[in-house]
Amino acid sequence: MTTPAHDLPEVFQTFNHLLHRRLVRGSLNKEDAVRYSFFYALVSAGEIDPADIFLESSHSGFEGRKEIDLLVPATESRPGRLVEFKYDTRLKAGGNLNRTKRAASVLFDLHRLSLYEPTLSWQRLMVYVSDSEMVGHFRSARNGLAEFFDGSGECDISALVQANVGKTFASSFQGVVPTTRGRIVFKADQDGPEGLWVRIFSVSPAVPA
């Protein structure tokens, strides 16, 4: 089960503002910068004690070394929260990204979130930030991912994976058909060569309520 993310608009807006300040100052240089900006936004909203945040917590749904980037246990006044982060940017040394593999990785992170205690009411969020490098790939009609990246409705991740059944997607999911749904709960675009695209997805496991 998943608790809706309607209670976090202030957090999302603060997070987006911090990202753009970092972009202007040249300090948005790696995924950790995205994570720290979100941590600050979450704590500054006043409802979470920094000491309650677990970083890189063990993932109960996977064997081996699999972790959740951020976990905040539930209290009587708010749901527990699980957050994954991904920041895709062009290669500093030039060359081409494997965009298909990067896109598959985004979908797989949504899938991983859905597997953490799927019958419990966690608020599951996937925070995705990209520069212009990946935007064209998501919006290309031939890749079938435009509704996922820009749409307002809920997307069936299993349908997206099955529609992109190339070897790269197959290797990312290792034969697993995900039962996961995702919906954008926040998005912000800054177009241009030095732009920034922010998407925050609420993730739902497709299990009986």
Features:
24% strand, 209 residues, alpha+beta, seven-stranded mixed beta sheet, 35% helix
Write up what this structure looks like.
The protein has 209 residues and is α+β, with helices and mostly antiparallel strands. It has one domain. It is built from 7 helices and 7 strands, in the order ααβββαβααβααββ. The chain has helices at 9-25, 31-44, 99-114, 132-139, 146-150, 157-163, 167-173, and strands at residues 54-58, 67-72, 81-88, 123-130, 154-156, 180-190, 196-205. The chain has a 7-stranded mixed beta sheet with strand order 1-2-3-4-7-6-5, with helices on both faces. The longest helix has 17 residues, at 9-25. The model has no long low-confidence stretch (mean pLDDT 81).
What is the element layout, followed by pairings?
Layout: H1 9-25, H2 31-44, E1 54-58, E2 67-72, E3 81-88, H3 99-114, E4 123-130, H4 132-139, H5 146-150, E5 154-156, H6 157-163, H7 167-173, E6 180-190, E7 196-205
Parallel strand pairs: 3-4
Antiparallel strand pairs: 1-2, 2-3, 4-7, 5-6, 6-7
Q: Helical segment tally?
A: 7
Largest sheet: 7 strands, mixed
What order do the SSEs take from the amino end to the carboxyl end, as H and E?
A: HHEEEHEHHEHHEE
- The share of residues in extended strands comes to 15-25%
Please, how many domains?
Answer: 1
Distance between the ends: 7 Å
Low-confidence stretches: none
Structural class category = alpha+beta
Q: How many strand segments?
A: 7
Strand order of the largest sheet: 1-2-3-4-7-6-5
Which range best describes the helical content: under 10%, 10-25%, 25-40%, 40-55%, 55-70% or over 70%? 25-40%
- Taking all Cα atoms into account, the compactness measure Rg is 17 Å
Judging from the principal axes of the Cα atoms, what is the shape?
globular
Mean pLDDT: 81
